[in-house]
Structure formats: C-alpha cells, structure tokens
Amino acid sequence: MPAVSVEHLAKSYGNAVAVRDVSFEVQKGEVFALLGPNGAGKTTCVEILEGFRIRSSGQVETLGVDPADSSTQRWLRSRIGVVLQELAIEPFYSVRQVLTRNAGYYENPRPVDQVIELIGLGEKSDARIKRLSGGQQRRLDVGLGIIGNPELLFLDEPTTGLDPSGRRDTWELIKRLAAEGTTVLLTTHYMDEVEALADRVAVLFGQEVVASGTPESIGGRDVGAVTIRFKLPEGVSAEALPVAAVPREDRYVDIRTEEEVRVLHDLTGWALAGGYQLAGLSVLRVSLEDVYLGLTRTETGADEEVAAR
Amino acid sequence: MSTTQLPVRGSFRGASDVPLVWRQVYFEQLSFWLNPIGAAITIGFSVIFVVFFESFEKHSSVDFLHINLGQYYLPAFMAYGIMAACFNTMAISLVNRREMGLLKRLRLSPLPTWMLMAAMLVNWMIIAALQIVLVLVVGLFYGVHGPHQVGLFILVVIVGMLSFTAVGIGVSTLVPNADSAGPIVSLVFFIVIAFSGLYYPIKSGTGLATVVGIFPIRHLIVALVDTFNGIPGTSVWNDILVMLVWAAAGVFVGLRRWDWSPKRG
Fold first, then answer.
1. Are residues A276 and A196 in the same domain?
2. Do A75 and B109 touch (CB under 8 A)?
C-alpha cells in the first residue's frame, strides 16, 4: 500500500480551477517532490492530502484512509507531520514550550530535547520565539513538523527563507528522516533541493501533472542528445576536428550528439594520435532546471502564474 | 517513527481526553500570561473602573432599585469583565490566531476541534472569573456586600461567559483581517456596553432600556445586579433566555463562516 495515492484529483473554487486531473503515488519511505510555479496547485494538492481541504472529485488516500473522512482525521493527523509554507508559531512561547505543547498532541512523539538538537536550536531552547531570527523560526517550524514522529511528513517549501547553511542543515535532517523510513512529500521551487533529496518528482503546471519520474530521468534527461565540450588545442581549428563542432567565444567547442560513445571514441582517438590535450573535456546532459523551464513555459515564453484562489 | 495501525475512528476518546483538555487549557493560560501587558490590560480595566466609581459615586442611590451606586457598579463591572474577556479579548485573539496561521497549524495537528474549543472556552472563563474575584475583593474593601442570591448569581455568570464566548466566536468570523480586529470588536464592545447601563443605571421600561434590551450585555448587567443585591420581585430567567439566544446565534454564525485559514480580506 502506498503512503499516498492520488487518482484524477480535481479541485475548484467556483469557476477557478486549482487542480485538474492530478494522479500520482508516493511509496512508503520515499522522498517525493512536487515541483511547479506559483499557482500550479502544489499547495492545494498537499492540503487535500492532509485533509485540510476537501477535493471536488477524484480518489485520494493518505496512509490508507480518505483524508476527507472526518471520522479518521484525528488518527491520520497523529501519523502525519506538516511544515507549512508560511511561518505560524505563537510569539510568546519559548522554543521548548511550543515543542512540549505540540508533543502532547501525539501518541508517540519524539523527545523534545532530541528535536531541539535535530533543528540546531540547543542554545535557543529557552528563548522566546519572537526573539528568534527568521531562519531560526523556520527551523522551529520544521521541528514542529517532526515532533510527532510522523510516518508521513509534508514539507511545503521548507527551506524558503533559510540561508545556505540553514538549507543544508534542513536537507541533512530530511535525509536522516528518510533514512529512518519517514515518507516525505516535498514541494519546492529549488532544483538543487530536488536533486539533493527527491527519489521521484512530479512537475505540476497549469493545475495538472505534466511530467514525473526520477530527478535523473524526468523529461528524458537520461536519454537523447548530450553536449560534449572541451577547449580546442593550441593551433587547431574547429574544422580540423574529426566531428562537426560549434566554436564558442572562449576557445571551447560544443558537439551536440545522441551518440556520445562513438563521438568520444573518435575524438579521443584523434587526440591520442595527434598528441593533443582535450582540456576541460565534459559530457553535459540537460539540467533539471532546463527540463523544468521547458515544461513550464507558456506559449508566450513566460512562466504561467495562475492564482489558485 | 510511529507505525501504521488500523485507523481508530472518532475524535472523542472518552475519559482519556480529559487530561488533554486541561493540558491545552494550561498552554492557553500560559500563552495569555506570557504577554503580561495584554494580560494586565484585560484584567486591569474592570478593577480600575470599579476603584474609580466606588471612590466617587458609591453613596449616590439608585431609587428605582433601592440600592446605592456602590452596590450597582460592582456587579455591573463584573458584567464588563465577562464581556471584556470572553467577547472582546477572545474575539481579537481568535482573529489574530487565524490570520497568523496558528489555527491552521492546530487544525493540522491531532488536537480535535472540540478539544481546542473547550480549552479556549475554559481559558477565557478562568480569566473572566479572575476578574470577578478581583472586582469582588475591591468591592469588599469599599464595603459592598454580596452576592445575596449566590446560586443564581453563579448561574448568570456562567451563562454570561458561555453567551459572550459564543458571540465572540461568531463575530470573529465576520472580521476580515488582523488589522481590523481591534477596531471592529472594540467598537461593538464599547458602543453596546456604554448604552446598556454600565456607567449609569437604566430603569426598565424606558425607551433606551427597550432598545438596549436587544443586546445580551444589558441582560447580563441586569441579572447580575439583581442577583448580587437580591432585589425582590425580579427574575433572571428572561435574561438568561436572551443570553442563550445570542449564544445560539453566535454558534450558528461561527459554524457557517468559520475558517481555519487566514482570510486576509
């Protein structure tokens, strides 16, 4: 049984379509990322899976139950953790007080001290929340998401607002949770975050899934043309190469090919025979960002910005 | 990490939930007292008013009630304390919590809605009760005596707390954003309370008494003054009924318009 199952999910607010015909599954223990521009429907999907919003149509299961079923919501919410897109913490409590309060809501919470250590707020544990920096509050937000020791963790843009160090720390925490078996459903705008964390990714655009797969293969990244790039040896022109190449301004050349093994063989054979160095030789596949931008371009070339509500 | 078991249905787990309610009450109280300025303003106003009016007006008499003003102001400002805590501060706090996303976070936790509501109700009842006790202590210092009909007095206090909490919840759902919570709720609070007989007694049967008789605070003031002083020939049941009708209206509006998410209107 998957941790999350979504089939033909749709959600509308009056005439405004927030999500249309979205389907995907998240397996237990998996880190699954939902990518998409603002208004693509990521948060709506997540909120439906959390049981916070009611879907218009389609089938949804979270940990084997319908999240819209009010009779099992207390059970379900004791098994999920949620990190919201926007900070929401009472300003007058201390770090320890708010974590202690929330720990009491769950059947098998993590020890408060363990969570304080995991989120790196040991020295601030007795500080009032209003005295914390934005990044520290964001880390506390993550702490509130994991205090219940969840089977399934929803992270809605969890590193937005964090500095690079804070982002890396949060990534390490997510990797650790995943290694312990926690299923993670992540929404993010950051491609490096997806590549660092996600086992699989789905791209939402125009309120529907336009591509899904592993970060390495989505959008055909693992197949198709590659770019072979190197610096031309001194005294050699691009025309002298054994394969057709496009010169760049920096004396590098690009060779676009779908037969990288044969082309590399021809090139390296030619270089060895002539005694040339192929400085900076690299094989470049299309980046995740290129794939994402290709999938989320409108006909006018701009990212679609659709206000869901 | 917890492991999946067969789903347990229902949001009420019987007696095992009672300690959880009190735990939530504790954290609601903690949140209130951790903001000492806000707590002092909420608690202190009724005491300051009572000291002021008892110091300067206590010997004037209210002929139609056959009591002096000292005996009138004490229960009247208890009514003020109940409305200030259970309606004014509660509604503003609720709007702020909604607009800050705090209600949404609680909604996504296993804390059942009924438990949150029960804890909030008890929290504001405790704060209102504290004001009543403080006002009573100040009144004793000024030689005021009462309550004379203790059982009915306590009943009126409890109904008043329930009624204003319900109305406060209903009104909070009509406030579109955090910035307007204070002005809207306080405007309703001060206008209604000013003409309902808080600062000066209003004789029943007059035009003003009939108009303000629509509002629950008028009935809370009258019922508390009557039971505190044991005024003969009076009955609080009509006052209790009006307050309960307002409570029902508050619950109705609250259920219809309740939103866990920020409205940001």
1. no
2. no
- The answer to whether the beta carbons of residues B106 and B98 sit under 8 Å apart is no
B contact test, residue of A49, A92, A97, A309 with most B CBs within 10 A: A92
What are the boundaries of each domain within chain B? 19-257
- Chunked into runs of 10 residues, chain B (265 residues) has average pLDDT values of 68 88 97 94 90 84 87 95 95 96 95 95 97 95 94 98 97 95 90 88 90 95 96 93 98 96 83
* φ, ψ of residue B210 in degrees (nearest 5): -65, -45
DSSP string, B148-205: SSHHHHHHHHHHHHHHHHHHHHHHHTT--SHHHHHHHHHHHHHHHHHTTTSSS---TT
First-last CA distance in chain B: 39
Residue of B nearest to A102 (CA): B109
Would you say residue A49 lies in a domain?
yes
- Nearest to A149, CA basis, from A179, A177, A171, A172: A177
CA distance A167 to chain B (A): 22
Same-domain pairing of A123 and A91: yes
Give the global pTM.
0.87
